[in-house]
Amino acid sequence: MHVVLAGGGTAGHIEPALALADALRRQDPTVGITALGTERGLETRLVPERGYELELIPAVPLPRKPTPELITVPGRLRGTIKAAEQVLERTKADCVVGFGGYVALPGYLAAKRLGVPIVIHEANARPGLANKIGSRYTGYVAVSTPDSKLRNARYVGIPLRRSIATLDRAAMRAEGRAAFGLDPGLPTLLVTGGSQGARRLNEVVQAIAPNLQRSGVQILHAVGPKNELPQVDNMPGMPPYVPVPYLDRMDLAYAAADMMLCRAGAMTVAELSAVGLPAAYVPLPIGNGEQRLNAQPVVKAGGGLLVDDAELSPEWIQSNVLPVLTDPHRLYDMSRAAAEFGRRDADELLVGMVYEAIAAHRRG
After folding, report:
1. How many Cα atoms sit within 13 Å of 211 on the Cβ side?
2. Is residue 10 annotated as involved in ligand binding?
3. Quick one: which of 15, 64, 116, 194 has the fewest CB in 10 Å?
4. Residues in domain Glycosyltransferase family 28 N-terminal (predicted)?
């Protein structure tokens, strides 16, 4: 069996694809896996690092919304669809699994032309154009939120890295706190604005940090590799404030934390829900509003707080986050609500859909 994965560009498309690849290999070590990508995406680094074959095709950016520019897309796509077809023919692909982004639509159109079954995964609450179009060509559409509007949608969650999907936060708490030089017994706030950091979150946290410390809360703060580390004067007897450029062991960071302050990317929301870590979500104020939609279901379930970027301030953290961190019963209830909403088995469910699509195609 050979599966072609189409989900390049950003980590939000690539990480679920790689999690599926790992799950397919666990089920059948002989399965062939090829990832489609473009030379401008993160997949050029992430896919080879994980040991999977990568085939590059030309990038054709798609408009985020239906615009007059859509008329020019088929012509611009012709060459890249042909390149995708050649990969499917060479690998004798049994299925194309698309995750959205630049390479997904050429992958879907090439698969349709060649009669190869298609499975779609949509990570965001508001689906992208590629997956909207692709969903017309298949009955196998996996989504990350229960109220998705995509046709034929099945709620499975987002395939996660194994280190996250299998994480037992309580069992790893001591190891996580020791790894970052944190006190083993104090309530802990984890802060990160994603892989590049978020200046707004950084500024607000640095302003409120002394107040949190005086209230008995310690902080682990990933500021982003390009942002300057704040000067910290940890006074003797005060809970620590630990700024780091980035976190390469998110499993340990999640285990160390009692609550998180973060953006609301689909992968972040899925990971925090799966491991039962409550969060104060601050959706990115640009784009099409999808981050707010990503966070709303888990917040509605009681597993998090939601605040607009413009409303985030030291005073908001003092009034809303600090009372949670210093109330073990409320932390427990929010953690349980997040975990009940989250899905740890999305990778296995998506593997099942791949086998189902292939079996249905073979039956004709």
Report:
1. 16
2. yes
3. 64
4. 3-139
Closest CA to 334 of 250, 290, 272, 270: 272
Per-residue pLDDT averaged across 190-215, rounded? Answer: 89
How many residues are there in the chain? 364
124 is in an annotated binding site: yes
Distance CA 59, CA 94 (A): 24
Would you say the pTM of this structure is higher than 0.85?
A: yes
Q: What is the CATH number of the domain that holds 22?
A: 3.40.50.2000
* Predicted confidence (pLDDT) at residue 195 exceeds the cutoff of 80: no
213 marked as binding residue: no
Choice between 71 and 205, residue whose per-residue pLDDT is larger = 205
Which secondary structure element, helix H or strand E, spans residue 167, and what is its range? Answer: none
Query: Range of 213's domain?
Result: 164-341
- Residue 271 burial (10 A CB sphere; 0-12, 13-18, 19+): buried
161 in a known ligand binding site: yes
Shared-domain flag, residues 262 and 351:
no
Cα 120 from chain centroid?
Answer: 16
**Nearest residue to 21 via CA among 355, 343, 360, 351:** 351
CA atoms within 13 A on the CB side of 141: 23
Let me know: does 77 contact 109? Beta carbons within 8 Å. yes
User: What is the distance between the alpha carbons of residues 352 and 78, in angstroms, rounded to a whole number?
Assistant: 32
For residue 72, give the H/E element and its range.
Answer: none
How many CA within 13 A on the CB side of residue 23? 27
Query: Is-contact 175 184, C-beta < 8 A?
Result: no
Query: What is d(CA 148, CA 165) in angstroms, rounded to the nearest whole number?
Result: 22
Residue for token digits 């709303």? 296
* E strand spans, the chain: 2-6, 32-37, 53-56, 95-98, 118-122, 141-143, 153-155, 188-192, 218-222, 241-244, 259-262, 279-281, 304-306
CA–CA gap between residue 131 and residue 150 (Å, rounded): 8
348 and 241, same structural domain? no
